[in-house]
Amino acid sequence: MKILIVTDAWEPQVNGVVRTLKMTQRELVKLGHEVVFLTPLDFKSFPCPTYPEISLALASTSKVRSMIEDLSPDSLHIATEGPLGWIARRVAMQKKWPFTTAYHSRFPEYVNARFKVPTSWTYSILRKFHNAAVSNLTPTPAIVEDLRSKGFKSPKLWTRGVDKDIFTPNGAKHPSSTGAPIFLHIGRLAVEKNVDAFLKLDLPGEKWVAGDGPERARLERTYKGVRWFGVLDGLSLASLYRAASVFVFPSLTDTFGLVMLESMSCGTPVAAYPVPGPIDVVKDKVSGSLNQDLRQACLEAMVMNRRDVYLHSTYFTWEIASQQFLSSLQKISKS
């Protein structure tokens, strides 16, 4: 089967959406399917305001329709709610093609955190987008129920996995370790990620942060004792996870948080708030600690058995996630 995935999130971005789509492609190709992408790289584009690393495609409906028709897919998945996603949705509805969508991030909460736009306004727009699909794929049971309660008609579970070739307990640890406890955060440094909640904590040992984003300069000015690593490749990230005592995930708005799974796959326990995302990824008191007091969660996570942490991560695989994705697709009638 030829599967077309339309996405506004693509290279050179480094984030969970891009990683999810690439790993899904890898697994579907193993099963004998052909996966093709329509991305901003296929068009002229401009940087997204406040997210300059994200390119927004300058595409017309006629151009996108022509490209989709030339590709002649058997199934269509629209991964994001950006310009390409909306145009692909319009084309599919005009052609009466079934399609699936995905809810990767709690965009209304992000917009509210940045611009104070009421979440009810943004959810209204997203309902219109996703309710036209045969299925709206969502990463955790908690988010499925949350969307259903907000009037989304067809949320369906599409979990995530981890690359076990890279993120494993066995391997090199980052050589910067001094032997003191290390509290690590990896991710985009943006206001909606709530990184201040971690960095302001009074914790024993060291704080390490890897990643980049619009908040990086301010955070580096504010928190002087932190080790900053910037953007790293997968193997380098794995060495940080393995060196860390605890991975701290302070976000209140992520739908999943692949970095938590990567950390657990390296045997490193997670400290997080008990909110959607972490509550379906972390097994409290086994692979980490979920607590409204993030400092207490960090201290509790330090004593977790690292083998138990790793074993919990094995319940999440890209094979299972990709089968969920595949089962949700609906074939396009070409008669």
What does this protein look like?
- By secondary structure, the chain is of the alpha/beta class.
- It folds into two domains: about 1-160 and about 320-330, Glycogen Phosphorylase B (Rossmann fold), CATH 3.40.50; about 180-315, 3-Layer(aba) Sandwich (Rossmann fold), CATH 3.40.50.
- Helices cover about 40% and strands about 15% of the residues.
- The chain is built from 14 helices and 14 strands.
- Strands 2-1-5-6-7-8 form a six-stranded parallel beta sheet, sandwiched between helices.
- Helix 3 links the parallel strand 5 (about 75-80) and strand 6 (about 100).
- About 45% of the residues are buried.
- The mean pLDDT is about 95.
* Number of helical stretches of at least 4 residues: 14
Oligomer: single chain
Number of domains: 2
Strand content: 15-25%
- Architecture per CATH nomenclature, i.e. the level-2 architecture of the largest domain: 3-Layer(aba) Sandwich
Low-confidence stretches: none
CATH topology of the largest domain: Rossmann fold
Name the helix and strand elements from N-terminus to C-terminus, one letter apiece.
Answer: EHEEEHEHEHHEHEEHEHEHEHEHEHHH
CATH superfamily of the largest domain, by name, is Glycogen Phosphorylase B
Q: Keywords, please?
A:
single chain; alpha/beta; Rossmann fold; 2 domains; six-stranded parallel β-sheet; 14 strands
Summarize the structure.
The chain has helices at about 15-30, 60-70, 85-95, 105-115, 120-130, 140-150, 195-200, 215-220, 235-245, 260-265, 280, 295-300, 305-315, 320-330, and strands at about 1-5, 35-40, 45-50, 50-55, 75-80, 100, 135-140, 155, 180-185, 205-210, 225-230, 245-250, 270, 290.
